[in-house]
């Protein structure tokens, strides 16, 4: 019924802002760390990281003025390697490395959760190009370092 929405609690704006700040911090930290890793260790297949909070992003000049640049980024592959089979292998490798290191990383679409997620988007559409998205969770800095290690190890194999 329409009035059932009144059963929902009112949003706690302070708590929501803290959550958004954490998600943004984590996305910026991991995106910047991976971009640095790629620039120092060029990859045959990986082109870079796409995130508006990075100086390399075309929207950075105005996005930097906002308190929230997003909670996810895209891993960009070089043209010859923009293939679903390679994307799937990358996601599987991340999940395998996470399991080995006992780091919680989930697969599947969505963002804003507590745990970092990686997934292949636009896989079954005629209206867009598939790509890999990494949606950061609310991990603390110690957990985030472990997530970074998983992604760095995976990038080294690509």
| Cα end-to-end separation | 52 Å
**What spatial form do the alpha-carbon principal axes imply?**
globular
Return the structural class: alpha+beta
Low-confidence stretches: none
DSSP, total strands: 5
Main beta sheet, described? Answer: 5 strands, mixed
Kindly estimate the percentage of residues that lie in beta strands according to DSSP: 5-15%
Integer-rounded radius of gyration: 17 Å
The percent of residues in helical segments reads 40-55%
- Count of DSSP helices? 4
| SSE string, helices as H and strands as E | HEHEHEEEH
In round numbers, the mean pLDDT is 91
* Spatial strand sequence of the major β-sheet: 1-2-5-4-3
Polypeptide structure, described:
This protein is of the alpha+beta class. The protein has 4 helices and 5 strands; from the N terminus they run αβαβαβββα. The protein has helices at 13-40, 60-63, 84-101, 141-156, and strands at 46-50, 72-77, 106-107, 117-121, 131-135. It has a 5-stranded mixed sheet with strand order 1-2-5-4-3, with helices on one face. Helix 1 (13-40) packs parallel to helix 4 and helix 3 (84-101) crosses helix 4 (141-156). The longest helix has 28 residues, at 13-40. The termini are far apart. The mean pLDDT is 91.
